Amino acid sequence: MSHRPHVLYVAWGFPPSRGGGVYRALATVNAFVREGFRVTVLTADRQTFEKYTGVDPSLEALVAPGVEVVRVPFAWPAMDTDLRHWSALRMWAPRQWRNRRKKLDRKDFPEIGYGPWREPLERAAVSVHEADPVDLTVATANPNVDFCAAAVLNARFGVPFVMDYRDAWMLDVFDGGLLHEEGGREDRIERSLLAGASEAWFVNAPIRDWHAARHPRLAARMHVVANGYDPDFAPRPRTTRSERPLTFGYIGTASAKVPMREFAAGWRLARERGGDLDGARAQLWGYLGFYATPNPGLLRLVEDHAADGLTYEGPVPKAAVRSTYESFDVCLLILGAGRYVTSGKVFEYAASALPIVSVHDPGNAATDVLRDYPLWFGVADLDPGTIADALEAAAHAALTADEATRTACAEFAARYARDLQIEPRVRALRDMLENNGGRA
Question: CB neighbours of 2 closer than 8 A, spacing ≥ 6?
């Protein structure tokens, strides 16, 4: 291909959004730039993130030079708390208003909250293509409405596209069931999109295999692109033993699915036993819930365990992630149940070469990743006594693990650098375009 191919990357959440998927989006865009693509990003407007989900301004400086970011206005009526914007129906009949709002949201695309974004997103995609023809579209979910931009360019102009699933659309990654009705509107749309996609990416093998079994004729197009960690911001491996008092640290977004209550009970018990946990602290960094305001229930839980040394420290800007890990002696991996659940933090935790305590169902996909990590301490169940035992074992390891063991941890983690996960697929896509004269 004589010209630099133009890729349109579609991600509702992109810097300065602080959402969990933003790091994957940022890394993917930068990988395309390194491979010689020109990149345009379609994303929501800055105000959306500032008002509703929180922002990390430091992330914008990490976007590769030359990337054009097109921000598409996004309305989120259900999240608007300004009473001046509320209708009389919402004021006096909130239940009826919510029901009506849900119907309106699903009118153009079956996704509550995001469906109305379909039309402005598609218009923006067409406008980008008409101004500078697009050679490839990569759309990442969720929300799944992002895929509509790829579909419209494919239908109208034959532009090939990739579907990057950060979680799943039909699959409930926590219980393994279906999120939507078999044969329903979501199912029909997803099947149509997958049939037209050049590739579909999934974050781990269990999710990829579930989709391959469901769509066997498309299995060859489905690939695992794990989240991995960002080497430039990941923790430096700890090669020395820790000293008391120890600091246990969690970085991430704690949702209602995360067994934080079970962890807190186990932590209290471990602290009461003393020993290596004398004076130990447990710090929660990141977000309590998915929005800018902390989840009240999780915040109360932390406050109830303040005497046990459990604290909530707030969000961590990307630029401060490394220094935050350097303050830890043990990493806390607290995840919701489900064999399809991994979490991008698994890989970053491993890069630290610190002991890792897994407080989650042992059937999680994270177990498959960490099984051979030398300083991994998993639990067989979420009983407080079991969790306390794992915390004690990790504390002892933090105080005694030698340099050779920690070096082995760092070597284990090296295979999970994020660029090693993404770049092979980006190169394959460039080859695909070159082999087809610039268009699949």
Answer: none
CB-CB neighbours of 404 under 10 Å: 9
**Identity at 60, one-letter amino acid code:** E
Assign a CATH topology to domain 247-414. Answer: Rossmann fold (3.40.50)
- The answer to whether 426 touches 32, Cβ cutoff 8 Å, is yes
Q: Considering only CA atoms, which of 234, 212, 222, 205 is closest in space to residue 364?
A: 205
Q: Tens digits of per-residue pLDDT, 177-218? A: 999 999 999 999 999 999 999 999 999 888 999 999 999 999
**DSSP labels, 344-392:** THHHHHHHTTS-EEEES-TTSHHHHHHTT-TTEE--SS--HHHHHHHHH
The pTM score is 0.81
CA nearest 161: which of 439, 397, 353, 365?
Answer: 439
Domain boundaries, the chain: 6-228+418-435, 247-414
Judge whether 354 and 333 are in contact, CB under 8 Å. no
Given a contact cutoff of 8 angstroms between Cβ atoms, the answer to whether 5 and 433 are in contact is: yes
Write the pLDDT tens digit of every residue in 391-414. Answer: 999 999 999 999 999 999 999 999
Cα 312 to Cα 315: distance, rounded to the nearest angstrom = 9
Find out if CATH 3.40.50.2000 is the number for domain 6-228+418-435.
yes
Rounded Cα gap, residues 414 and 401, in angstroms: 19
